[in-house]
């Protein structure tokens, strides 16, 4: 069973190689990529079932010891991220099969799209499964290298300009991350996450804080946490809809996943929790104010993405079991809903010829199917009951009430205001794109919506509705995942041994307080 842990990384890498060889056979490329992602999704489901029944699963590559070799680790959190992310990447790939990825396809080597896309999937899986900081860095670099290519498909001036900003910011965060890895190794003599959980406990508080801040800055850039988020609204809107959907759904969530691991496994009950909460509040408010001010659909969605990262950081900053569980649930919800909205934006652009809200109009009558495909995830993002967005936000607010501090109450207020302004931004989109009188160009650009694109978007909506209908069991699963990541001993004991887990100085209880272990 442990060997299955390697498949979410090996399968897309192997598929990328095969699809690159088949670059002259577009249909074979497509079906090879789809079959590869179906296989990975199946493996993710099996891993999810196994870790639920048996606990943390560990693969030591080459039977090297964890201190020396590459270790892949899957717990409940990892399994959930793999299942959700691979369903999204599969749906987006099917969507993209019916859309010209590049409007300049005659000049662009679009045959590299599928190999690069699978390389991105391999990087995301590697980041989720990595059991040490260095291979987490490798996973980030693999997905970032692929994203550079995907972002520039088409070679238009706007995409090259946006990609330049994206590449510079990504390289900066990678340099900071690598410097952090080097500093951690210099201070502890290891980069294995389980060993670090034990050794970092023994460092003095000043050294711990410096190491934490360096890694946190690197991950915050990747997760687009304010004030390190200015690059995102200018980078994402220029890419093709499928590429933007994957970027919005997954790339920032890999950064949040890394922050979650950092603040639970390596630096539990952090001394800078108030800094995290302040960043969460600023991300919520400033991000949504930016969304309200936009007149382009993709830019509105990009700013809401920045804003809603604050919800996830809110739960992480509290370090309580309820807050962590709500964050895990909200991450799964947001990956799905944000990706769906960008796919719906692609449908709107296909039908209207633009995403400028001033030039759109009348889509409720002209394209009622697109109206439905946008309306459902939009209401979910805004947190309208009974959708999963509402459930996740209620969980975070409840955790904030239990947190019972000034910072917690401020975050509750910011969360409520952000939710209301999100609804306002969605209402503005609906009024302009769907209800206002259409211009003549809307009739001139009349094109039927490809069934594959609308079907893939509908599948994503159905998946988001599963999160709503099965919210009880999924929230229970998230609560158990939160308990596991806060206790730390299941992870450390599985990677090293129970004796090593017993060397942990403390764990975090349900209220986010340190409990001495020895």
UniProtKB/TrEMBL annotation:
GO terms for molecular function: NADH dehydrogenase (ubiquinone) activity. One of its GO terms (biological process) is ATP synthesis coupled electron transport. One of its GO terms (cellular component) is plasma membrane. The keyword Transmembrane applies. Its main location: membrane. The chain crosses the membrane at residues 26-49, 80-98, 110-130, 136-154, 166-188, 208-232, 239-260, 272-293, 300-318, 324-345, 366-387, 407-431, 452-475. Residues 130-419 form the NADH:quinone oxidoreductase/Mrp antiporter transmembrane domain. It is a multi-pass membrane protein. It is found in: Cell membrane; Membrane. Pfam families: Proton_antipo_M. Keywords: Cell membrane, Membrane, Transmembrane, Transmembrane helix. Coiled coil: none annotated. InterPro entries: CPA3_Na-H_Antiporter_D, NADH_UbQ_OxRdtase, ND/Mrp_TM. Belongs to the CPA3 antiporters (TC 2.A.63) subunit D family. This is Na+/H+ antiporter subunit D. It comes from Candidatus Brachybacterium merdavium.
